Amino acid sequence: QLPLVESGGGWVQIGGSLRLSCASSDYNFGDRAIGWFRQAPGKDYEGISCISLNGDTVTYADSVGGRFTISKDNAKNTVYLQMNSLKPEDTSVYYCARARYSWCSGSGVGEFDFWGPGTQVTVSS
Length: 125
Known about the structure:
Blueprint: E1 4-7, E2 10-13, E3 18-24, E4 34-39, E5 46-51, E6 58-60, E7 68-73, E8 78-83, E9 92-99, E10 112-115, E11 119-124
Parallel strand pairs: 2-11
Antiparallel strand pairs: 1-3, 3-8, 4-5, 4-9, 5-6, 7-8, 9-10, 9-11
């Protein structure tokens, strides 16, 4: 299991945008799907998005509505999460994680077996 590294977090104004990156050292993402999770203070991990290995299937949590977009760049071995129209409730530590399979089997943490260290996103005025 080679490292997953998130980047792109930081502070952003309400209504602003931010793009997170998840870089994998494994070729072809280790033949796995990649998901994004977040954990706000005092709350459980929330699975917010996932993209299958082939990129033919993506999932989103209801909480992000149509504001977030997941994508991948195989040449750079990187998965992105574009976040638009950010709200204070989006403030969380964001993690990317490698799924147990090449498809997105579910949004629970048990469906993922390897995690990055996380990156903080803070949304405020």
